[in-house]
Amino acid sequence: MSKRFVLLSLVGVVITTTGCSEMGVKAWERETLAQQEMSLINEPVESSLNDHVYFSKEASSGGQGFGGGGCGCN
Amino acid sequence: MAFVQHSTPKLMQKLTIEASLNPNQHAAPELWSEGAPCYRIQFECMASDCSMLVESHRVDLVIEAAKKAIIEAWRIENTFSRYQSDNTFAVIHSQPNVRQTLNQETAQLMLFAHHAHQVSGGLFDITSGILRQAWRFNGSDKVPSQEQIQALLVYVGWEKLGWSPQHPDQLCLPQGMELDFGGIGKEYAVDKMLKLFLSIFGDVPVAVLINGGGDIACSGPRLNGQGWRVGIESLAADHTSDQVISLSSGALATSGDSRRFLLKSGVRYSHVLNPLTGWPVENAPRSVTVAAPNCVNAGILATLSLLQGNHADAFLKSLAVPHWIHPTNT
Amino acid sequence: MAVAVTNTMKKNHELAKILAAASCALVGGLSTAHAEESWDVDSAFLLYSESDGRVSAAEPVISATRNYDSETSLNFKLVADTLTGASPNGATPSDQVQTFTSPSGNGSYSAAAGEQPLDDTFRDTRVALSSNWAAPINRDWAYGVGGYVSKEHDYQSLGVSSSLSRYLNQKNTTLTLGLGASSDTINPEGGVPTGLFQVPEDASSSEFTQRNDSESKSIMDAVFGITQVVNRNTIMQFNYSINTSSGYLTDPYKILSVIDDDSTGNNYGGNYTVNNRNVYLYEKRPDSRLKQSLYWQTKHQFENNDILDVSYRYMFDDWGVTSHTVDAKYRFRFNNQYLEPQLRWYTQSKADFYSRYLDSSAYTEVDFASADYRLGDLDTYTIGLRYGYQFADETEFYTRFSLYHQESSGDDGYGKLTSQELYPGLDAAMLMVGYKF
Q1: Which residue ranges does the record assign to the DUF4266 domain (chain A) (predicted)?
Q2: Is ipTM > 0.90 here?
Q3: Which of B103, B273, B278, C272 has its Cα between 20 and 30 A from that of A41?
């Protein structure tokens, strides 16, 4: 029994270290990722307010989404 | 329980549901035509074969509504399953002895469990699930020792929870205790499915009956004004006492299971456990079917009546609810 | 044991009534976690205030999203902002009192000796409305479309956007192509000044009378993104985006000082004068700009449910600006509260035509020039803290306080100019309060 355990865990290690092509999760492993807090822009209102401040104070904009505009502030 | 059908069903399509909404990897639901405008959708949920019977001239809405309803049932199944490591059930039990905030859905279920506990004088108790660790109803004669039962009863008792109906979303779960929503989960899912299904149709005429593995809810009579014909199977092998009833509103739920019992020294112990004693209820009927306005209501009445043992019939009669009882003796 | 049975029939009727009511409450209640076609509203108010009485702004936002199912949603957002205060006009400080013509040409304002020249006529109100619709096409594809309109007294913008996403590898990889276009109109107070032309004394000058009322610019955006689920706790995004602007990209209210660079005279490093008037020029920027950026973001949730969100952006453009931005947030999550410290660092190199001032011997020969510090060498830092409290009914109150610091740098000039502070820093405080319901 313990022998089998060791073998299994070795296989597991091999998969995780060679496993770039194995990136990703199964549909039923999305509990965490499905949380609203885990979306890439989880606070859109805060992001848009920040983007607006930075757009009007710096020479760069965009990147995460569109480059912004629509404002005479820059 | 079975439906009485008289047509040649034809498989129209399998309904594709995104894998992320099918966490327990059920087979794809099947849409069958029973001759327009009747459709039947077969799907799996909570270890049961489930189905929906729909009458509508809008097959597009039938598909959309059926998908939404099935996704909801699978969501509820997955949320309260005792066999997941990261669902609502697991999260609640991973935080014993601390005050935690329940989501709104769980808080509502707790409120319902509270009312059922109150009115049943403590006989209905969702903390009693762990008694099954001692009682295994597999037809064997293995009766647990009183010490075993006493040891488990320490962790049974609704009033031991740090919870009050004034703040239904605040819970402190003592270490070792367990909340088992399984007793109301299926009925709850059936009612939620019906509600969601009908919301898709809005004002468009539709008649639907949802069968969640024997727990049934319908939207009302069929489009032709007649009731749905629902068969209540007898437990006898030859189905001699099968009854066909006409359901034109509300819901049916059945409690009891002929296959789950313990036989010891000539005493047949049903799988219905009294949370106050830790022992099975004596002389409980094999199964009880109750009709009520919604499935959760029918289910709780059926469960409570089983807990009355041989007074089940009298209990249900006093409530004046339609019911069908399969007595203890076969 | 069978308690209920011993009770009266009346008592059992009571029981039936309670259970019927309780089951109705359970089933009929708003209790599903399922987003059943409701509006989710996020409303917030931002107060922005710069030190030394420069710009302050109040900005209310309301965003409403209707979720039809997990992938279909409609969003409307309304933003208003009111700005007041003073903003640097681009001129250098001087050892003399300086007087500037106001943008409209109908007045003037001045800066004391050694003081930063600030245009205190700066005042604006903006209202912007945007809307976005996102929906699946089928199980492998999804799309989004949006529109945007904003209005200020001297600026209008109209924009559209669209995106197309392809899910691959069981939705572990998402490829997204986004396209956006906007058309803006600028109608500055007093008309559109002539770039690199000397600021006249007042509106009676022919420079004023020949002005156009308005100018326009158009912007095109394209974003190509890859989102990859790394494991059950980690998600990563990589974007390449390109943004082109063309048309009138100049700031009509910004000017440059011309500095006397005759090292033999006694005004070396002072304001260059012609006919006893200091020479200031309207700034002028190229009429096109191509920006490109690479953006990387990773979000990871730890075993204790805390979430780390880190991003990096590299941007470069054909004006010679390159910038690096690092943004990090860490959300400590408690039962129904969270605390999120935030840090952001930004650095940019100046645009080729950026010049803090122009030399008197060469100012007539430049093609483009701007003294806008936002196009100069600049480092900025933001430190912030966000706190949120989630109520039992799934509404949320949140607040965020942050401090923003800017440091400019560049050439220190010569002669008298060296004693002036050419690159003042800027500090601003931001307070945001919001409620989601």
Answers
A1: 25-74
A2: no
A3: B103
